[in-house]
Design brief:
With 394 residues, this protein is mainly alpha-helical. It has 15 helices and 5 strands. It starts with a strand and ends with a helix.
């Protein structure tokens, strides 16, 4: 969802922001993470639907910027080059605005903050950390690697779900076609057969009569139900409720927890390698997690601030697994905590990939058997009177 926010940011005064957030509370947390205070906030709509989110090609922009910097161009020259070659009007407007801020003499990270719809807080923090070391290309390399790995994990999940969803949709469409168009024609043929039919066949014939007589009413009810479902999916409260129900399923909930931890540690490791303190990094990562995870992350940050070890704080708040705890302790001994957290993220990603592959292989034959049984049952019930009639004639 899109929110229009009037806020006060340190060093910038009062500004107007447009943010994408799951809820009003999430939008306030995003502003607070940037050290700001919200004065006014309201949802922005286009009709009854939220405004479409701007798709700024952040990964492509970062890759091209890195190539230009490595080639020896200065930061301003690189941004000028990217602005000249950009064809998309929306993306070029953002790059021109970024260039204008650099002309004013502000730092790169501060210039990025003016465009939160294109540059997330993690990107801004990476740029700000690089300003301390003077190595922006290295920071961009870390972010590109992080983004590539995150996209790869997301594509694996989406790719694994395409075939089962497609199979389910096609099966439902075939079943609906039989029930709405084929069964009514058969019911008209069987009107004079009588009641000496199997109970399920009689029920199917009655359904055919109902569709024939009140088809438009049925279509209106189905359209209204689909509209309500579509409206509910766009509501954050419904999505939160659906996510909570998934978390309550033991097998699925545990895997979702591991997926969240993989994203958590991968992002945290990238920030730590960029030189950001662990407490500040935890505050920044907090907004990427599911709402019920966030209090645990805040509590872990408080424990670390009070002097507890990172591994101890994570174990206390349930933000790690058995393998993750051991790897965190190794990272504390070696001093390579950022690299170790990225390895934890990679380990959990591989675990999720294996589970998704296994569950996909299990679901596909089950779906085929279920859909085949439903469609085959409908066809058998439609032809059962013909079989009985042939038997009586014989």
């Amino acid at each position: 969802m899109r929110y229009e926010i009037k806020a006060v940011l340190a060093g910038q005064g009062m500004i107007l922001l447009e943010l994408d957030a799951d809820s009003e509370e999430d939008a306030r947390l995003q502003v607070a993470a940037r050290g700001g205070m919200v004065l006014n906030i309201r949802r922005s709509f286009s009709g009854w639907m939220p405004k479409p989110r701007l798709r700024f090609p952040l990964a492509h922009f970062s890759q091209e910027l890195l190539s230009l910097l490595v080639a020896g161009l200065s930061l301003v020259e690189s941004i000028e080059t990217l602005a000249d070659k950009e064809q998309d009007a929306g993306a070029r407007k953002i790059i021109d605005g970024l260039l204008a801020r650099l002309y004013e003499g502000v730092t790169f990270s501060r210039a990025l903050e003016y465009f939160p719809q294109a540059f997330p807080p993690l990107y801004v923090a990476t740029a700000r950390a690089s300003e301390r070391t003077g190595d922006l290309p290295e920071a961009l390399t870390r972010f590109i690697s992080y983004q590539t790995q995150m996209d790869l994990a997301r594509k694996k999940l989406i790719g694994a779900s395409i075939y089962p969803v497609l199979l389910l949709v096609i099966g439902l469409l075939v079943a609906v076609f039989l029930l709405v168009f084929v069964v009514p024609k058969f019911s008209a043929i069987y009107e004079d057969v009588g009641t000496d039919l199997p109970w399920l066949s009689q029920l199917l014939i009655q359904w055919g009569h109902f569709v024939h007589e009140r088809g438009w009413q049925l279509a209106g009810i189905v359209a209204a139900m689909l509209g309500l479902m579509l409206y509910g999916i766009t509501r954050p409260l419904f999505r939160t409720w659906a996510m909570q129900q998934l978390w309550r399923i033991p097998a699925v909930g545990e895997r979702m927890r591991v997926y969240q931890l993989a994203r958590f540690y991968r992002t945290l490791g990238m920030l730590l390698r960029g030189g950001i303190p662990v407490v500040k990094a935890l505050e920044m990562v907090n907004g990427l997690l599911q709402p019920h995870f966030r209090p645990r992350v805040q509590a872990a940050a408080t424990l670390i601030r009070e002097g507890k070890t990172i591994s101890g704080a994570m174990e206390t708040e349930g933000l790690t697994t058995a393998v993750g705890s051991r790897m965190l302790r190794v990272g504390e001994r070696t001093g390579l905590m950022g690299e170790m957290m990225e390895r934890i993220g990679n380990f959990h990603d591989e675990e999720i990939a294996r589970w998704v592959e296994w569950i996909t292989k299990l679901i596909e034959p089950l779906l085929m058997a279920l859909i085949g049984g439903v469609i085959g049952g409908i066809i058998i019930l439609m032809y059962m009177p013909i079989f009985q009639l042939a038997g009586s004639v014989g």
